[in-house]
Write a sequence for this structure.
């Protein structure tokens, strides 16, 4: 017979974390139930799964943004791949906007090879001595490229919100993230041995932990120490201590 009680409130469904009154009176319910602590390997793999899930979620948006950026760069560089600048050795009628003969606009002698452009604000061929054509500003970014980049940003934002919302929902309802579900681990309250609630799983373990890690300089040190605490005997990291939680393995 299993050493774990059943949850009478859920029609007898198996709940290894519901403590009996005798066990609650015994103090530390987690130890009384003899729940196995989640192995360090399972916790690491579960964390990696959560990270990869977030990365894969934003990947399509990044690809769309990259395609738009590539299109914009291709349009800006032009056919010659020179950013709209004349290739070396081109002058006069060989490249619009460059004048090689005739009187220069700034009073130069107009010897062959001298370059002159119209004053700022002029862009017509009549304003360029020698009959050259000044083309004005470089090519505009194609609307398709702009739409692609904006669409990619939108996809990234929506993907992040969806994944973030899914993880919060699972933590609130099951005390598990996607990675923990895959690895068969569960977050429980250290004091009661029951499933940790939304305050512990989301507010303390997720938001407070994330806020500390985002602090410049301090956050990096905190993150390193937090990870190293997994080698303690009770395998509780700093974020576990902040939330008063323990990560255990779910009995199969």
């Amino acid at each position: 017979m299993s050493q774990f009680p059943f949850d009478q409130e859920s029609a007898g469904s198996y709940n290894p974390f519901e403590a009996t009154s005798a066990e609650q009176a015994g103090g530390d319910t987690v130890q009384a139930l003899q729940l196995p602590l989640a192995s360090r390997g399972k916790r690491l793999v579960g964390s990696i799964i959560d990270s990869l899930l977030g990365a894969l979620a934003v990947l399509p948006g990044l690809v769309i943004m990259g395609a738009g950026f590539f299109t914009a760069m291709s349009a800006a560089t032009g056919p010659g791949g020179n950013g709209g600048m004349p290739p070396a050795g081109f002058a006069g009628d060989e490249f619009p906007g460059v004048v090689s003969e005739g009187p220069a606009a700034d009073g130069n002698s107009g010897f062959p090879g001298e370059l002159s452009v119209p004053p700022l604000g002029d862009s017509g061929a009549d304003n360029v001595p020698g009959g050259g054509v000044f083309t004005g500003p470089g090519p505009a970014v194609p609307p398709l490229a702009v739409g692609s980049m904006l669409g990619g940003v939108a996809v990234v934002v929506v993907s992040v919100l969806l994944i973030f919302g899914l993880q919060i929902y699972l933590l609130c309802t099951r005390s598990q993230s996607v990675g923990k579900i895959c690895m068969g681990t569960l977050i429980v309250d250290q004091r009661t041995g029951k499933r940790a609630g939304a305050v512990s799983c989301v507010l303390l373990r997720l938001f407070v932990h994330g806020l500390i890690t985002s602090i410049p300089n301090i956050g990096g040190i905190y993150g390193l120490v937090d990870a190293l605490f997994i080698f303690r005997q009770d395998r509780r990291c700093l974020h576990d201590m902040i939330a008063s939680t323990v990560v255990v393995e779910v009995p199969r």
Helices lie at 21-25, 29-33, 40-77, 143-174, 178-183, 198-213, 218-228, 238-243. The chain has a mean pLDDT of 74. The first strand starts at residue 185 and ends at 189. Residues 87-138 form one domain.
